[in-house]
Amino acid sequence: MNAPAIVILGTGALATARRIQALYVERGAHAAAGVATACRVHALQGRVEADVSYSELGAHLRELYARGTPIVALCAAGIVIRCLAPLLSNKGAEPPVLAIAEDGSAVVPLLGGLAGVNLMARDIAAALAVQPAITTSGELRFGTCVLNPPDGYALADLGQGKRFVSDLLAGESTRIEGDAPWLDDAQLPRSDSARLAIRVTPRAWDGREDELVIHPRSVVAAVVSDDAGCADAIVARVRAALSAHGLAMLSLAALLAPSSSMADPALTQAARLLDVPLRFADASAEPGESSAARLLHTALRVPHETLHDDAYPNVALALCSLAIDPATLGRPRGRLTVIGLGPGCAELMVPAARTALNEATDILGYDTYVKMAGPLRADQRVHGTDNREELQRARHAFELASDGRSVVMVSSGDPGVFAMAAAVLEALEASHNDAWAAVELSIVPGVSAALATAAQAGAPLGHDFCMLSLSDNLKPWTIIESRLRHAAQADLVMAFYNPISRARPWQLDKALDIVREYRAPSTQVVLGRDIGRPGGTLRTLTLGELRSADVDMRTMVIVGSSLTRKFACGDNGAQWVYTPRWYE
Ligand code: SAH
Known about the structure:
The chain is an alpha/beta fold. The protein has 5 domains: 5-135, Rossmann fold; 153-215, no CATH class; 219-325, 2-Layer Sandwich (Nucleotidyltransferase, domain 5); 335-447, Tetrapyrrole methylase, N-terminal domain (Cobalt-precorrin-4 Transmethylase, domain 1), CATH 3.40.1010.10; 450-578, Methyltransferase, Cobalt-precorrin-4 Transmethylase, Domain 2 (2-Layer Sandwich), CATH 3.30.950. Strands 3-2-1-4-5-6 form a 6-stranded mixed β-sheet, sandwiched between helices. It has a 6-stranded mixed β-sheet with strand order 14-15-11-12-13-16, sandwiched between helices. Strand 12 (252-258), helix 8 and strand 13 (278-281) form a beta-alpha-beta unit. The structure holds S-adenosyl-L-homocysteine.
């Protein structure tokens, strides 16, 4: 889990905040190798100094929440609830959120029951020597959440689970059948002759109401799809094999396939549909066994029973006595996901990019962007670099991914717009490397700087437009001039990326000279600087007023067409720039 952000409003809370921080700093020191996310105290600007400052509590809490950062807020519970309320109807991943009295006298877990908020509350309360305000009744009574079994186990049916816990709360006892080591310390009312039973079994639940069935993920399905089946057919065969042996779908720990079929998209899709990891191994050459069974023998290092079915010759199941950690089976298919972070703030990053970051083992990109992608977990390896050699970085990403790692390459904005996606594809095409070709490559789009800037200004890209990079690092200046001339002549709205830099001081003036040959001085111009980032500014002016000194490398320049217009609206001076949809 990420280290929590400790959020305070005034000096009165600083001492308590530092005590809680000490608890997590100590933890971080014991965390796995790599860059640990630091536990920081976030303080309201102008009121109190700490590690990170913020200017508005509501916006800051929502930003942290959207990034999945656990929040420890040293203020009234009501304030925290009101700030986060707009985000709560969206039932996505929910980080733990706690409200703590600033003098440390009360610890109130608010959100994130399934993300471990009660555990955090207990830890923090112990450090502050108070009782946590745990309100989850099952957890209160039994000291554990019976309905939230650990990794490697799955509850058969949540509805049944809730009924079962309310029966326990009403005073019934339970037997435990099967191996449930995590319940050893729970204060469950146990009795061998109880009517109710917690049953830990890979067998499918038969619907009996007096049982709480928990499935250990103890079954592995090996699939050899030499008939190049489609994903649905693979899923159907695995389901049929499980049901033929009376095994529950939720007892499936992983799908195993031969390394030679690593790049088969049907397998990837089938694993996704079955919601289990996909692992690969090479079958041993034992005679007399099906290749699926041989795969299981090579990959599984623990005792297991192999289950076949003549009706499904390309599927074999291995049933182990305990839950299996899929990470110990063969190797995974490596992944490389090229993502765009959007312009900077968490709300403008698409959820698929957040998911890729959460699942990443390795993260690559410019240091600035990697920082923007955070917070990252202590177990995630960061290969941050100031290295401007993009192809080199792309190759590094493929090396890591073809080793079975889950790699995320970060770009700002959209990864396909003057960013890493094209470099990654260029490296792949030039490589002729089978291991790189087997990597699961995907590109997740993002909100590009031109789109984020345009949205703040209104709709300057509302009609035909083009995006041009003014950098002549990778293309001759003559090409840029000729494109500018054509675009200006065609009356396209133009979005300029990389408009100027210390190494390219004269190019923007030259570009504007060309544009001015075709566009009137009254042409609308929008300048967006650091849009979506702290201190971002938006300016609208005319082409006649625009000077290259108004622009730096963190600026997006949008030059309107002959029809782009600006108007003021209402009494508060709001101004909008837009390009009409029609043309006259
Ligand atoms: N892939 C990025 C663009 C990278 S090129 C995207 O799709 O946005 C870098 C240029 O993008 C900068 O020189 C600047 O012109 C523009 N840019 C990137 N982020 C910006 C932001 N937050 N605000 C304004 N311009 C930005």
